[in-house]
Write a structure and sequence with these properties.
Number of strands: 13
Subcellular location: Cytoplasm
Number of helices: 10
Keywords: Amino-acid biosynthesis, Arginine biosynthesis, ATP-binding, Cytoplasm, Kinase, Nucleotide-binding, Transferase
Structural class: alpha/beta
Helix content: 40-55%
Shape: globular
Domain Aspartate/glutamate/uridylate kinase: 22-261
CATH topology: Carbamate kinase
Bound molecules: adenosine-5'-diphosphate, N-acetyl-L-glutamyl 5-phosphate
Largest sheet: 11 strands, mixed
Enzyme class: transferase
GO molecular function, one term: acetylglutamate kinase activity
Amino acid sequence: MEKYRAQMLIEALPHIQKYYGKTVVVKYGGNAMINEDLKDAVIHDIVLLSLVGVRIVVVHGGGPEISGMLKKIGKKSEFVKGLRYTDRETMDIVQMVLCGKVNKELVSLLNKAGGSGVGLSGMDDGLLQAVRKKDEDGTDYGYVGDIVKVNPKLVNDMLEDGYIPVVSTAAMGVDDDTSYNINADLAASKLAVALQAEKLILLTDVRGLLRDRNDENTLIPEIKVSAVPKLIKDGVIAGGMIPKVDCCVEAVREGVRQANIQDGRVEHSILIELFSDAGVGTMFY
Ligand SMILES: Nc1ncnc2c1ncn2[C@@H]1O[C@H](COP(=O)(O)OP(=O)(O)O)[C@@H](O)[C@H]1O
Ligand SMILES: CC(=O)N[C@@H](CCC(=O)OP(=O)(O)O)C(=O)O
């Protein structure tokens, strides 16, 4: 066992050097957030990364928790093109659940595990600024926002001081006094661009991008962003995977070096991706 650990450490060293002082944005949600053992592994990975000098930023989801709370008050969750239809009352619940419950729980767990987690929302210092989302076809999403500006100063300052920023994705309205609901993958992608991150990691509930979405043995380990449009056209990438892939493509096109869609069901998948030769999921570059 000790020999195995030593081997792992030797393999990890060049990777640790590679990521030292670099910014990594992790979108944390899905199974890895609901399963307690997986949650514990993610929290410890994030703390370890911070302790060895990686500038790590956590952007969290919480869709299932929001749906759970809505159900408790007798409200049904409605989704329009994969985004939650957000009326005024729903926006209040989104803000309470994401900024209050989920964010504070994560911050507390990070601190208990030896890190210095600090919770932020998109409202803090205008981190995420949004306008009401409008599609050309007139689709109404309620208080769902399109991010028009990111102010990463506070996050950068915190990273400089060794903190782990933990961001919930309620955004500040630029043109009005309301707040807006932002999909967490999208917020993570925009923040990664604003920080010019080395890597964006989107944790999800499948192995990554699959050539056949019904067969987990058909993982595409890496793909150039220029090859993505054809896969969408051919129907290989469909449904909930389209916006996720779009987030990765946009991030890489806007200066993030690599973006990963990877399996949140695998213990320590963040560490394996960053600090081993193995790599997991699909890397967009
Ligand atoms: N080529 C593909 N590879 C992997 N998953 C795909 C693909 N095309 C469509 N999908 C679907 O996308 C889903 C992931 O998107 P989604 O459920 O919205 O993720 P999350 O809940 O993590 O945000 C997969 O469960 C799968 O059904
Ligand atoms: C606009 C929109 O759909 N917002 C999401 C925000 C949370 C989220 O994205 O959480 P997951 O990553 O766990 O799905 C929602 O209300 O569910």
